[in-house]
Amino acid sequence: SVCCKWFRWSVLPLDGTLEAEIFRDRDLKRCAVCGGVFVPKSNRAKYCPGCAARVHRRQKTESERKRRSAVDS
């Protein structure tokens, strides 16, 4: 066995990258913003969780700005 049951069920779920490195059941991706390695929750993920919030907030702001300017004209 690679590791004991306690480690596998208690410690590994807290560190997804370590879990992926040990078991290789999930692919690792690189963040498009910071270049860090992360375990994607879906096949469409482009950003690590830290960068995702900032990127989505910026995209939403730009979308709202565009929508509001279209209403005025």
TrEMBL record:
<protein>
    <recommendedName>
        <fullName>Conjugal transfer protein</fullName>
    </recommendedName>
</protein>
